[in-house]
Amino acid sequence: MGHRGERTSCLPLLLLLLLAFCRGRVVRVPKGPLIRVMGTEVAIPCSVSDYDGPSEQNFDWEFSRDTDFVRIVSTWDPTFTSEEYQKRVGHGDIKLRRSSNDAVELVIRNIQPTDQGRYKCSTPSTDATVQGNYDAEVQVKVISDGLSVSGSKARSSTSLRLSEGDSFKLRCSAITTSPEHTHLHVTWQIKSGSTWRDILSLTHEGKFQPGPGYEERYRNGDIRLDTGANDTYRLSVSQASSVDGGSYRCLVSEWVRGADSSWQKIQEKNVEIASVAIQRTALDVVISTSNVSVTERDSLDLTCNITTDRSGIFQAEVMWYFSVSPDDTLSDAQVLLSMDRDSVVSDSTLISLSHVDRNSYRLLVRDVDVEDSGYYFCQAAVWVPLHNGSWHKVVERTSAPVSVMVTALEPDYEVFLNASKTPKFSDDPTELNCRITNAQDTEANIRFTVSWYYRQHLYGDDVVTEELLATMDADWTLLLGDRSRERTQNGEIIFSKKTVDTFSLRIQWTSESDRGDYFCVISAWSRHRNNTWVKSKDVTSASVSIFWSTQDYTLTVEAVKLKPFFVAGHTFEMTCKVSSKNIKTPRYSVLITAEKPLTDQSNPNGTTRIISLNQDSVVRLEDWTDQTRVDGVVLEKVQENEFRYRMYQTQISDAGLYRCVVTAWSPGGGGMWREAVNGLSNPIQIDFQTSGPVFNVSVHSDNPTIYQGELADLLCIVTMEGMALEPDDMSFDVSWFAVRSFALDREPVLLASLDRRGIVTQSRRNGSSDLSLERISPLEFRLRVHGCEDHDFGNHYCIVTPWVQSATGVWQREPDIKAKPIFLSVKMDVLNAFKYPLLIGIGLATAIGLLSCLIGYCSSRWCCKKEVQETRRERRRLMSMEMD
């Protein structure tokens, strides 16, 4: 089995070697015999492939009538030609024409019966080894010329003059007496310039084939090719046009089927049949009137005259068009009426078309209106009958447009605008009435609409264009301008029609931006025949000025401290008195602010919004965050222009400058309040004179550098200078913060806090470490970080808020004190970090090695053992077939 597999694998290699060995030069000529007609030019191709050497190959041609070959011509040896063919080769009657590097053609001009025989094409070897064939032969048979082509004998003249739309027929005769079985291919051609174009062909396979551009006419039956007796071929052309003028000829080619079953053209002849001239039909279309002007409701009368040189039977078709521009095309114009060649007129109610005489067509439009103004033109076409009973349009022309102007019957009326309500102050109402007066010639077909405009007041010679407030369509649909759209939708501006002749504009709450000039435009609309409305006239009213004098708003706020002196724990009280001018029925909103010293850590910006009271007397706490004194501040309205602020149980941290911020409001539109002006009072200072103790805070750690998993101790130590206090008279709020960076460029994170009541609050942590905060003495607070991790590093500091009990038993809050931060560094214990991974890795490696040794031993001992039994053979016996 092993030897058989080796033999099988060698088969593809042997086949490849065999193919490479069998590959060689191949010389090809057409399969014979080749049938050619005497006197024609013959081209016999020869090609070579699968050769070695240069890409351009040489060829030798030889000829034999019987057995011996005579040398004709060569591509590479000028002395190759035999004496018999030197004269014909020298005159060019026999030559070689190279078509590519590996192909040539033997061309024999005016072949004769003596040229009938065998032709051999050979190629000199350029291969390394001789392989394939180096020559090929083809048999050529020369037959006599039996093809005859002629024109029709019945027609004496070869020149035709026809009118556009006429029909004509041309005939030619073609016959062959060839001894071979040949087919004829007949093509009718036309030459209108310098080249001949195919019209219609009857191929050698018996198929009709129209030329380029004649496919549609062939399908419609306008061009036909018929065969008749005596081998005649007739071309019939219907509906002749200008493109059919020119010279016509009949081109006949003779075809024979070759040995390879393909068709080969062996000769071609033609004969010119006739010269055809097509005379275009002249047609003039003119409207008798140039420009027309009519009055609305009158009739419009236009006449279209047509003139043609056409004789015989024909019919005219007329269409009237209308357009608003003289440059519009027929596709853009509107068709008014049409009369076809059978004198059938399309239907219309107010427009009529009549045939006055053979060449005149009258258009009558009754009851014209303004929309009939424009340009009218007439289009005419001439139709002639065909042999099959149908009609063909031979010419079509369009007249020049005639301008028609329809003068509208405008109504006569005047417009008067007055203000029934004018504002004295802002937010007062304004009402304007636009009235139609002295209306005449306003029949039922007239409708009035209004447009409202606004023009701003400007000082000097500046010109301002008017702004559209609103306008009405012919169907009284209100269209809003950009200036009034939002206010109209909110109900602040109302447009209405009070009576038939009166339109109203009402501004519910007039503002300063509404001051200016107002005017209205009354438009008259006329109804047309199709029940559409067209604007016929606009009349503009005189303008009405809406203006009132205004003065700047003034607001004065004065703050007064009711108690000139008080101490911490007492009530602070101040009033704010407000006075205003040029504000209509004002109301006030008050905001109390405090400017704390910059040393106050709770308010680094300096200004605090404490409490506010709006114009509707609604009180709101703003930035007051002292939860122990939620009810410790009160703001109330004493009088219409006086407000009182109280702060109970004042603390030392309340020291600062207090002000009243007052906003004056005036009534606005829709019951809303509009902000008028703002005012700021003088400051009132709260200053506590005290000689109490001074507190300082510092942070300390015995070991600021620790390893992961160890305990970190941080101490917040409070020291006191000045007056000594008993431990029971002082208390502290302590908060610990950390900044997780070296340069304090990040936001601090709250770790834990301990208030003065001993309640500890811790923030949420993400790691596994834990915190504890405790007071270890009256002035010392310790923060412990248990099981430190790498994210516990950073700058740590504490903020302490002292509380001191006064002699009256009231606890006073001192300003916050921030300690200088201390940096806590957390290192990693490399030995402890890698101890357990190393031990686990060594153990796993040892176990895997022992397991591999055990698997190898078992495999070699039991799985891979094989017993081989050898059969003894006698030396003098033949070898067994298994060993072959």
Summary keywords:
single chain; 884 residues; mainly beta; eight-stranded mixed sheet; six-stranded mixed sheet; 5 helices; flat; signal; immunoglobulin domain
Structure write-up:
Pfam families: V-set. There is one protein chain. The protein is mainly beta. Helix content is 8%, strand content 49%. The chain has 5 helices and 61 strands. The longest helix has 34 residues, at 830-863. The termini are close together.
Radius of gyration: 59 Å
Poorly predicted runs of 5 or more residues? 1-22, 868-879
Give the strand tally: 61
Largest sheet geometry: 8 strands, mixed
Separate helix tally: 5
The pLDDT mean sits at 84
Please report which band the strand proportion falls in: under 5%, 5-15%, 15-25%, 25-35%, 35-45% or over 45%: over 45%
Helix content: under 10%
Shape: flat
Class from secondary-structure proportions: mainly beta
Give the end-to-end Cα distance, rounded to a whole number of Å: 10 Å
Keywords: Disulfide bond, Immunoglobulin domain, Membrane, Receptor, Repeat, Signal, Transmembrane, Transmembrane helix
Main location: membrane
Protein name: Prostaglandin F2 receptor negative regulator
Domain Ig-like: 12-131, 164-272, 283-380, 411-540, 693-801
